[in-house]
Amino acid sequence: MARTLLIIKPDAVAKNVIGAIIQRLEEKGFGIIELQKMHLTRAQAAEFYAVHNERPFYHELVDFMTSGPCVPMVLEKDDAVPFLRETIGSTNPEEAAEGTIRKDFATNIQNNAVHASDSPENAAQEIAFFFGESAAG
Ligand code: ADP
Ligand code: MG
User: Fold this and answer.
1) Ligand 1 centroid to residue 110 C-alpha, Å
2) Is 52 a residue of the active site?
3) Closest atom of ligand 1 to CA, residue 9
4) Between vectors from CA 115 to CA 57 and to CA 32, what angle results, nearest 5°?
5) What was the pLDDT predicted at 76?
6) 12/115 Cα distance (integer angstroms)
7) 2, 96, 104, 106: which could join 80 in a potential S-S bond, CB 3.0 to 4.6 Å?
8) If you write DSSP's letter for every residue of 57-104 in order, what string do you get?
């Protein structure tokens, strides 16, 4: 079994689709190991997305991620990292496959409903960021 981090972003929380997204994840076979609802500070959002700090959309991304509460969670499944990326779909919902979470719940390329870790190394780091080293499994 492997673990990964998913965040239900502020746009999806504001749309009242926390439950609908969790239902999709459970139907796909993910177990929920940790889950919390929280409002990121600017410092936390800036640190979490530091890898993008040279990108033109970085400041708007930090604004968006601090615009309301979000729901980070640790998910567990065989091949959790690549399988979750497949389950959420492309960054841009216009390019996301039918039946993916972003296809069905995202608004646009920025307000795209969810975050998911993109490698096992980043998953461990991102899980530790929210839930401590011990949650990385
Ligand atoms: P992903 O979330 O699919 O891993 P990235 O790591 O490339 O995508 O980007 C991180 C987040 O930054 C995206 O989920 C999205 O919220 C935002 N983002 C990415 N590209 C753009 C863009 N061109 N314009 C605005 N926001 C973007
Ligand atoms: Mg990414």
Assistant:
1) 6
2) no
3) 16
4) 165
5) 98
6) 11
7) 2
8) THHHHHHHHTSS-BEEEEEEETTHHHHHHHHH--SSGGGSPTT-HHHH
**Which residue, judged by its Cα, is nearest atom 27 of ligand 1?**
110
Q: What is the pLDDT of residues 47-94, one digit of tens each?
A: 999 999 999 999 999 999 999 999 999 999 999 999 999 999 999 999
Domain boundaries, the chain: 2-40+70-136
Q: How confident is the model at residue 137 (pLDDT cuts 50, 70, 90)?
A: confident
pTM of the predicted protein model: 0.98
Identify the nearest ligand to the CA of 91 by its number.
Answer: 1
Report d(CA 80, CA 55) in Å as an integer.
27
Residue nearest to atom 16 of ligand 1 (CA): 110
> Which residue of 48, 57, 101 sits with most ligand 1 atoms within 8 Å of its CB, as the best mutation to test the pocket?
57
Residue 45: enclosing H or E segment and its boundaries?
A: helix 42-48
The confidence band for 23, taking pLDDT boundaries of 50, 70 and 90, is very high
The hierarchical CATH code for the domain 2-40+70-136 is: 3.30.70.141
